[in-house]
Amino acid sequence: MYTEFYGFTDKPFQLTPDPSFYFDSSTHHKAMAYLTYGLSQGEGFIVVTGEIGAGKTTLVARLLDELDTDQYVAAKIVTTHLDADDILRMVAAGFGLNILSKEKAILLTEIEVFLRRNHKMGKRALLIIDEVQNLPIAALEELRMLSNFQEGDRALLQSFLIGQPEFREKWAFAPELEQLRQRVIATHHLQSMTNEETRNYIHHRLKIVGWVDRPHFTDDSFQMIYQYANGVPRKLNTLCSRILLFGAIEELDNIDKNTVLNVIEDMEGDIRSSGPRPQNVNGQKPALGNEDPSQQLPTNNDEVEVLKERIFVLEKYVKVHDETIKNALEIVTDIIDHNDDQGA
Q1: Positions in the chain short of pLDDT 70
Q2: pTM score, two decimals?
Q3: Where exactly are the structural domains of the chain?
């Protein structure tokens, strides 16, 4: 609807990742530099992580879009909770191999044959694992084993591991992944965009679809957009799409702070209405804005996932600190015992 009203050639803030809309912010530029560096090395693992909606999938889409298909053959896998054998089937399927009713040994053999055949043809094989945080350690070990395939001193497969922040904790701390850690040649964590980058991001996507300053965004509207979305691309896309829809409905040629506030209130109202309202002691639902803070639980799936990530990371840090304290106490105890023996 708003595309016709404002004369756009396409939707500038669609949620589906599209490499043609890629915006080279400072953090995405660094991530792309690491991916490009990884390509130049031709071996090992490159790890890129980021919060939900940080633009990881768009980054990968951009990388694939720029690859020379005469030099590279790439497979991209979006994981769920796969076991070790399933990940091999997904890898085989990603490279176009037949995976029907095949045992692990046969799959490994066919993957190796495929990799060696492409090497002889002068092509390099790339494996991109998206949402890698979903994989159990056994599946990650299978991926490491695939990196053992070599022709002379050249690795036959290079892998890019793309995931949410908890994956950094998993591969950094899990003792079982020590050999994988030794093969990680570069890592980068995507940060949120700055205030200025947020403004440039919005302009960038609008210009791609033919925007000529209609609607006009005021300075205070950009400030309000940044405060709400905090420089996270997916949140920006969701908010800006709703702003343009609101602008078209209200036939607005200018988007100001009040426009953005109205849209944010509508969005938050949608979130509140999507979940059950809390009951007070009399069984009545309190008026919006007067809820007990202890009852204001997240109803948005992204918010729930972010909370899960933070809890996971905190648990890992607590575990590490517990081990550190335990070791320190053991050292202190040994020193005390030694001094007691000396004094005796």
Answers
A1: 101, 270-344
A2: 0.71
A3: 2-15+193-276, 26-190
